[in-house]
User: What shape does this take?
Amino acid sequence: MSRLEWHPRYHRDALDGMERMPLEERGAYTTLLDMMYDRAGPVPDEDRMLAGQMLVSVRGWKIIRERLIAAGKIEVIDTQHGPALINGRVREELEKQTKRSRKNAESGAKGGRNKPMMPPKVIGNNDNDEANALAKSKLETETDTKGSEDKSSDARRVVSIDHDAEAWRQAVTLLTSQGGMTQAKARPFFGRLISLHKLEPRDLLPSLAKATVSGTQDPQSYLSRAAEAVARRRNEDAKPKRVGWV
Assistant: This one.
């Protein structure tokens, strides 16, 4: 697994778990957790390296290390690279992330088999020309004509696409699969976001496509910034243009 840019923090659990830990041990413990998430795995059990990371002497680090092990906060494991330190909660969260990534990959593969004609991947920021072109193409498409013919009349079926409903579907999927939210929280979050910036759900389709393709680990923050940027550009476009006299 590649390094994680973001990980969930359960503040109530953290406060309860560190309730009896002095400041020095808390600092070392939280630093170790961040190092484990950053590496997406255990941290080498190297006294000099870790003492330097904590800005303490090797002797001081060894004392802290033993206290954390005795308190059950970390444990020593054997890896192919030698002894390492890991935390039980970190191991669980990394396993969850691995399962989510595998599920997303399998879903993407199934989608590719069922729908061979997929839109191009959108890579870049919110101003990316490809993202804007994709969104414009999707929004201007009013109907999707299917090739299957009615046996009785040979008439083609025309199915209308609800772009707002599609945006809602993508948003809820993104927030639950990559953001760790439940549907009960994901829908109100997206609703408040578009209401706050006075947007239509379809306005965020390009951003949803990019977030899904890039696999962002913090879709809540990403969509908040995207909505703010879309609203800002819209307000700038609405400003009257100054016309000079020739």
Notes: The radius of gyration is 25 Å. The first strand starts at residue 43 and ends at 44.
